[in-house]
Amino acid sequence: MEYVRKLMDRVSVEGVKIELLNTAYGNGNTFLAKLDPRTLFAWYLYFGIAPWFIHDVVLLIGLFLFMTVTTIMSRVSPLIIFILCLGLLSQAGYLLVVSWIFGGGWDTILPLLVLTTKLSVISMASITVFCSMDPEKLSDGLLSIGVPKQVSFGIAYGYRMLPSLLEEYHHIFLSFRLRGVAPKRHGILYWRSIAYFLKIAVLSFYPLILSIAKRTRTTVEALEAKGFSYAYQSPEVKKNKLSYMKFTIRDGLFITVSALYVCLLYLFAASYTF
Model's pTM, two decimal places? Predict the structure, then answer.
C-alpha cells in the first residue's frame, strides 16, 4: 500500500509539475549536461536521423543499447520514460493486432518490430539531448547555430511556462468541478462519469487560452520595455550572450567514443547477418 501511495503521489498534478521541473532544471550535474549544446546537436544529427535509413537488425539493436546507456546517463525523469514506453507499446500493439486480424505472420511482425526499434532509438536520442540541457542552454544553443531569435526564445519561454500552465489548468479544472453537478449515477463501466470529466477537461482549456494570451501580452510589453528587440538584433549582445559556450576535451571525448562505437558496430554488423 505504501508503494501504491507513492506512485499515486507521482501521478498527481503536483507530482507531474515536479517531474517537469526536474526534467528541465534538475540534470545540470550529469556528464551530458556539461557538454556544449552544439556538440549535442551534432551528435543528435546522426542518431536522430540515421536510424530511419538503417534496416539491419544488428545495427538497430546496437544503437538501441547505446541509446539506453545515454538515456540512463542523462537521468531522465521516470515520467518521461513511462510516456515513451506507453506510446511505443500502444503503437506497436495496435499494429500487431491489425496484422494479426488480417492474417499476418512472422513476415509481417518482424518489420513492425524493426520500425518500433527505430522509433525507440530516435525517441531516446531526443530525450538524451533535450533532457540534458536546461531551457537557457537550449535557447542559446539554437541561437548559436542560426535558429531565429524568436524561435529560440519561444522554446525557452515555453519550458519555463509549462509547469505554471499545468498548475493553472488544474485549478480551472477543480473550479469547474466545484461549480458543476456530477452525475448521480456512474452508469455502465462509469461512462457517465468519464463523459462528465472529459467535458470538464475540454471546457477548462478555454479560460486557459485566455490566460495564456494575457500572460503573453504582459511578457511582450515587459520585454520591449527592457529593449528585447534591440538586444537580439545587436551582434555585440549576441556575442556576449554566447561567450560562455566553448568546446572542451569532454566534447571531443564524447564525439570520439560515439563515432568509435558506431564504426565498430558497422564492422560487427557486416560480419554477422541476422
Answer: 0.75
